[in-house]
Specification:
Blueprint lengths: L9 H5 L9 H12 L3 H25 L17 H5 L5 H33 L11 H4 L2 H21 L1 H10 L3 H7 L5 H11 L4 H12 L3 H19 L5 H48 L6
Helix pairs in contact: 2-13, 3-5, 3-13, 5-13, 7-8, 7-10, 9-10, 11-13, 12-13
Length: 295
């Protein structure tokens, strides 16, 4: 079921201007053009979301006792293995941890939703700003939370069956945040149904678009496993004492993990703005193909 054009806003009508849906290559190129002059702000928004998540997670760990590992210490300055394995958590702390973690997830999810809204504004000529991160909190907050919760519930329920159905449902609902931005008065369930209708026959297309960005993340994976396996083979055939070889391997493993995490973090700030901009262009193209844009 598709909703009629009367539901859509003027911002949807002004996007587009051609009579066919762009290829993924053209979508990526168009997204790069829109990011000109907005890329720095896109990175800043990602950094702000990362900082907010880190701070709130730290608060949760502190309030629930996890920052001290919640261990029954035996008086030592540093924990021993016995104290680590005797780690316990009270039912209250466990419940508090779950509740606070859900709250944090909803806050961060709302900020990410606002970040996505910023890319739609960018397509309409409005520069990205940190204020976009707060837009979901300004109006209809409970509806925003409802959209986020329903998406999560549907994806989780479908993932219970198998991973593949969960991924398919994730992509079926991929346009929900965009639709909500353009149609704030639409019912929450209708927003999700509209996304499923728009994505019918296009889930693989969006997955392939995402994949062209995700493949970049293979760089730290190759570094970690490729260099790590090669180095381990070298040390395995060395004539040094076993303790020295184990120490070298441990240090190498830690170094490779730190390097992989650092590269992954850097790539995130390079790739994600481009991927999110491409998704916004994809959404605009879907609207046009559904004859909801006057070209």
């Amino acid at each position: 079921k598709l909703y009629n054009c009367g539901i859509m806003t003027l911002s949807q009508i002004v996007r587009g201007g051609h009579s066919y849906m762009l290829t993924n290559k053209e979508i990526r190129s168009t997204a790069r053009e829109y990011l000109r002059g907005n890329y720095k702000m896109a990175v800043v928004n990602l950094i702000l979301i990362t900082i907010a998540n880190s701070v709130m997670q730290s608060v949760v760990r502190t309030l629930t006792g996890e920052s001290a590992l919640n261990m029954q210490m035996t008086g030592e300055t540093l924990p021993n293995w016995d104290s680590v394995f005797s780690m316990q958590s009270s039912p209250f702390q466990t419940t508090l941890n779950v509740v606070l973690s859900i709250i944090v997830a909803l806050i961060i999810g709302s900020m990410q939703m606002g970040n996505e809204w910023g890319y739609l504004d960018m397509l309409d000529g409005t520069p990205l700003s940190s204020g976009h991160l707060l837009k979901p909190f300004e109006n209809q907050l409970f509806k925003t939370l409802g959209v986020l919760v329903l998406q999560a519930v549907y994806v989780i329920l479908w993932s219970v069956l198998l991973i593949i159905p969960g991924i398919m449902k994730l992509y079926a609902l991929a346009l929900s945040n965009f639709i909500y931005f353009d149609n704030p008065d639409m019912k929450t369930t209708d927003i999700l149904r509209q996304s499923e209708a728009f994505m019918k026959g296009k889930k693989m297309r969006l997955f392939q678009l995402d994949l062209t960005y995700f493949v970049v993340y293979l760089i730290p994976v190759v570094l970690f496993f490729g260099v790590g396996i090669a180095a381990f083979n070298i040390y395995a055939g060395a004539t040094t004492a076993d303790s020295d070889a184990l120490l070298y391997q441990a240090l190498l493993l830690v170094g490779l993990m730190l390097a992989a995490f650092a590269i992954f973090g850097i790539l995130t700030f390079i790739v994600e703005p481009r991927r999110k901009a491409a998704r916004a262009v994809f959404y605009s193209e879907v609207l046009k193909e559904e004859n909801l844009i006057i070209g």
